[in-house]
Design brief:
alpha/beta; Rossmann fold; 9 strands; binds adenosine monophosphate; two-stranded antiparallel sheet
């Protein structure tokens, strides 16, 4: 399945979750077995020549693509979660929202120094969430190999905030 065919499955919902937002809904991709396989295959292609120890997925849609990617790469999977969800000792990173800040967490023992890490989410907008995930991995001594997204909202220039890192996306708006 081509990237254009995958893109045609993304459902755009206006004014969700609030007025003025064009929400890019990936659930039709998950529902389509051929598209789901194709997305994971495309993501795998970006790291085929790399040794990857850990795939880090960002809550919650990053989990849906991150776990199959980790299986395909023979890597482990680590979740980045919202504040207060993880039961054991955590590291934290804060990032700016339009109004206020948000905090994400990762288990302190999830990444070992020198681990080679790929970060995955469904979508990059401003890059704030992905930047926080980078912060968590680096606090624990992990090495970021690449950041992978199914969708990139180019106008929000998220990749500019991640300069120096390999950022890849399958579909751009
Ligand atoms: P950001 O931190 O601004 O890059 O936002 C990325 C996070 O917010 C990802 O976890 C996305 O799932 C979610 N997100 C932001 N904007 C949208 C959008 N227009 N449609 C769907 N998800 C979005």
């Amino acid at each position: 399945m081509t990237l254009d065919e995958i893109k045609s499955l993304v459902r755009t919902v206006a004014d969700f979750p609030k007025e003025g937002i064009l929400f890019r809904d990936i659930t039709p991709i998950l529902r389509d077995p051929v598209a789901l396989r194709a997305v994971v295959d495309h993501l795998v292609n970006y790291c085929r020549d790399e040794r990857v120890d850990v795939v880090v997925g960002i809550e919650s849609r990053g989990f849906m693509f991150g776990v199959p990617l980790s299986l395909a790469l023979g890597a482990g999977f680590v979740p980045v979660r919202k504040l207060g969800k993880l039961p054991s000792e955590v590291v934290q990173a804060e990032y700016a929202l339009e109004y206020g800040t948000n905090t994400v967490e990762m288990h302190r023992d999830a990444i070992r120094p020198g681990d080679r890490v790929v970060i995955v989410d469904d979508l990059i907008a401003t890059g704030g969430t992905a930047g926080a995930a980078v912060d968590l991995v680096e606090q624990l001594g992990g090495e970021i190999i690449s950041l992978l997204f199914v969708i990139e909202l180019a106008a929000l220039q998220g990749r500019e905030s991640l300069q120096g890192y390999a950022v890849h996306s399958l579909i751009t708006y």
